[in-house]
Design a protein that fits this description.
This protein is mainly alpha-helical. The protein is built from 3 helices and no strands. It has 2 domains: 39 residues, no CATH class; 42 residues.
Amino acid sequence: MYFPAIGILRSKYFPDSHRSVVMNLFGIPLNAMVVSVFLSIERLGVQGALGVSTVALARSLRQLSTTEATNEVELLLSFKERNFVS
């Protein structure tokens, strides 16, 4: 279910000519985080490694909610400009 949904979203938002570059650029920070956690696993321990993943997930959720709120405001403003909403 996940992979077909992600494939549809990728084809919708990224043109074929740029898709591989964009996906590779998003993979670089993720790979850097994984390598840094693996290299410092003795110092972090299991709880520290899970803490790093929790912080990363919280940051991504915060960014997603900020992006969604910005998109809603822009949509509302565009409706107001077209006199759809008073």
